[in-house]
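*** Residues and shapes ***
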Amino acid sequence: MTLTRTRDFARTALLGGLLLAAAGGAAMAQETKPREAIIMVTGEGESVMAPDMAVVNLSVVRQAKTAREALDENNKAMTDVLAALKAGGIEDRDLQTSGFSIQPQYSYPQSNDGQPQQPQLIGYQATNTLTVRIRDLTKLGAIIDQSVTLGVNQGGDIQFTNDKPEGAFEEARKIAVTNAAAKAKTLAEAAGVKLGRIIEISENQLRPIPQPVYRAAMMKEASDAGAPPVAGGENSYNITVNVTFALEQ
C-alpha cells in the first residue's frame, strides 16, 4: 500500500514538472517575441459655422428703503419684460430665471478720529436675472432695446451659439483624421518604413467658447440711440484625434 502511494506521488510530481516546464517555455517564447512597432500621432480638425442662436442675460435691479418696496418695483419691471418677450415670439422654453437675490445695502461712514464706524443700513437691492435664448438673430438688437425701455438695467454678455452643431463636429472630425493620417505618412516615409493598420483611435471634442460682444451694463446708454448693433461672426468647432498606427517591417 505504501509503495503504490509512492509511485502515484512520483507520477504526479513528474507530470507537474512537465507542465511547469511547458508553461515556462511558452512564457519565455512570449517574452522573446518582439513588440509590434507603432507610431502615434495627433490630428487636429476645425470647422466653422455661423451662429443661429444668441443667449443673453437680462437683469432688473431695483433699490428701495425696504425689501418689500425693492421687490415690488423689481417684480413690476420684470413682469413687463417677460410679457413683451412672449408677445415678441420668445417661447417659454427659451426663458429661464437664472438669478435672484435681495441684498441689504449699507453705507460706511468715514471716521474722523481713526476709529472704525458701524455700517449703516440705507436700503435693499432686489436683482432678478432672466436668461433668454433668441433663435431669430434679426430680432436681437430690438429685443435688447425694448427690454431696456421696460426696465432692464443690468446683465451679462451676449453669447452666440448653434442649436445643432453636430454637422460642424462631423466635418471637424473628418479633417482631424485626415490630418493625423497625413502626419503619420510623413513620419513613416522619413523613417523609411511603411504604415500598417490603425490600432487605436480616440478623440477630444472642444466646443467653442462664446465670445461676449455686448455688455448689458451699458444698455441704458445704448438704448437712447435705438437698438444696439450686434454682429454674430462665426463659431469655431475643434476636434483633436489621437491615432496609433502599426508599422510594417
Observations:
- Strands lie at 38-49, 53-64, 95-107, 120-134, 154-155, 159-161, 194-206, 235-248.
- Confidence is low (pLDDT under 50) at residues 210-224.
- Residues 51-163+211-233 form a domain with the Alpha-Beta Plaits fold (CATH 3.30.70.2970).
- The longest helix spans residues 2-32.
